[in-house]
Amino acid sequence: MSLHDAGLSAWTRRDFVRAGVVAAGAAALGACAHRGMPPASVAADPASDLDDLARRVRGRFLRGGSSGYDEARKVWNLAYDRRPLAMVRAANVDDVRRCVEFARKHTVPVAIRGGGHSYAGYGVADGALQIDLGTFTTVRVDRDRRVASVGGGTRIRDLLAATLAAGLYTPMGGCGAVGVAGLTLAGGDTRGRGLYGTACDNLIGAQLVTADGDVRELGPGKDEDLYWAIRGGGGNFGVVTRLDFRLHPALPSYSAAFNIGWRDMAGALRAYGDLVRSAPDEVRAGFTVDPEAGGLATCGYQGDAAAAAVYLEKWKAAFRPVEARMFTSTPDPVGQVWETTPLAVEGAFIEDLSGDVVDVVARAAAEAQGVGQMLLGLSNGVVARIPMTATAYPLRGTGLSSLIAAAWEKPEARVRAERWVAETGAALRPWARRAYVNYLPPSAPERIREVYGVNYPRLARIKAQYDPANLFRANQNIQPAVGSGRPG
Ligand SMILES: Cc1cc2nc3c(=O)[nH]c(=O)nc-3n(C[C@H](O)[C@H](O)[C@H](O)COP(=O)(O)OP(=O)(O)OC[C@H]3O[C@@H](n4cnc5c(N)ncnc54)[C@H](O)[C@@H]3O)c2cc1C
Predict the structure, then answer these.
(1) How far does residue 166's CA lie from ligand 1's centre (Å)?
(2) Which residues, in sequence order, are CB contacts of 446 under 8 Å at separation 6+?
(3) In the CATH hierarchy, which fold is given to the domain comprising 29-132?
(4) Where are the domains of the chain?
(5) What's 483's DSSP letter?
(6) Residue 35 is inside which H or E element, if any?
(7) Pocket residues: Cβ below 6 A from ligand 1
(8) Domain boundaries 139-249, corresponding CATH code
(9) Nearest one of 58, 131, 137 to 99, comparing CA atoms
(10) pTM over the 0.70 mark
(11) What is the pLDDT of residues 434-445, one digit of tens each?
């Protein structure tokens, strides 16, 4: 369960805004100068080719000065104000190919926009050609085969509304407006992953337009390297125009929530750490530090009502005298969305909430008052048992996937928020070398390398083979491995 879990946490749009956070290192992507990257500026004058592209695509084409350009370049995280070279709202796969071919010819970076909810604002980049998948929203559910196929710009709410109508489910995040592709390609901090694996573990097929303009079908036995890489490696390998998901029975969730407040935060965190260490696969759990309300522990048990009642007694005993608030939810509240805001984030995957790290989290929580929010969501069961190298997604083994976030309304609140997020992330790092890549701020390549760990060298080799010029770099960038590009 993620701390985005609307069914289990008190996380609301107001929380984001009142939290007041900072965007750490909001460096414009166009200014990146990592090894292996072509300059963000255009290598050859593309003016006439750009005019040609505008004529040839069927979807909407916008560039600086066009009416609608400023509105279209906005993304969910208002901390990022970037100016792409042009934006194409692709009408079909041919449009995507034409854009990629233009970008390759002129070595223009590509920014891919799916649902526009990247915390780091990657759906838009300075000087880039943005390919907007906003019209790729078809959702098809095959109830007999238990497969859902969705377009590359589909939002979570549309996918889950269709699967739940058929009594089926696939693990997704808690905000209905988030893009299915942006979440799944990075892995997914999802609800239901203890029983079913996370989003990328249920991705059984995809259509991908690679930097050479090829349209490829990926899946078991088909383009295995790319299929491995897109399950965790993000938007580094091309534009995903379709995703196919394995579906599971939709189970009800029986939940308990405990309003801890600010009293004995360390004690409550220790109790939470003990409970989740041995939690069965059916459990979705989270601990939220709210900037005003303090600690909130939540536990949802998916499946049998009687087994849930027995299990939830353990939680009641652990948090006594704090009273439990009990509720039952359908598998997912898909209508929940959060309005746009400027926001700073950091991520940390804490393997075991015990010992000194409890005091570090409790200290950060005390400093979070009036500033920011921490969400420590349990990742266990099936997702934890899949071997580390089975897919590119590196967060295997049981742990707490943590989001450290702060929003701000007034510009003067930005510095304090940014500092709290960055300092909290740094304080946790000795216990959390890994993190969910979608929770990282735009940051140094070393951090991406560290997060992917043993999977990074293979990702870098695949990147060198399929995107040697690093056109797809408006993301948590995998640097192409030196000397392992495609022959010829
Ligand atoms: C309010 C909110 C709630 C969130 N809740 C959760 C949660 O519960 N669980 C969770 O795991 N994450 C959550 N996230 C994080 C989210 O997964 C990432 O921000 C993700 O990148 C959003 O995807 P998007 O398509 O909406 O974003 P976009 O900004 O459109 O895209 C971000 C990046 O994803 C890649 N990408 C997107 N679409 C494609 C595509 N079709 N082909 C190739 N690459 C693509 C590209 O690299 C792109 O730059 C949340 C974010 C927000 C703002």
Answers:
(1) 25
(2) none
(3) 3.30.43
(4) 13-22+251-445, 29-132, 139-249
(5) T
(6) none
(7) 2, 4, 75-76, 111-119, 122-123, 133, 152, 173-175, 178-179, 181-183, 185, 188-189, 234-235, 239-240, 338, 438, 474-475
(8) 3.30.465.10
(9) 131
(10) yes
(11) 999 999 999 767
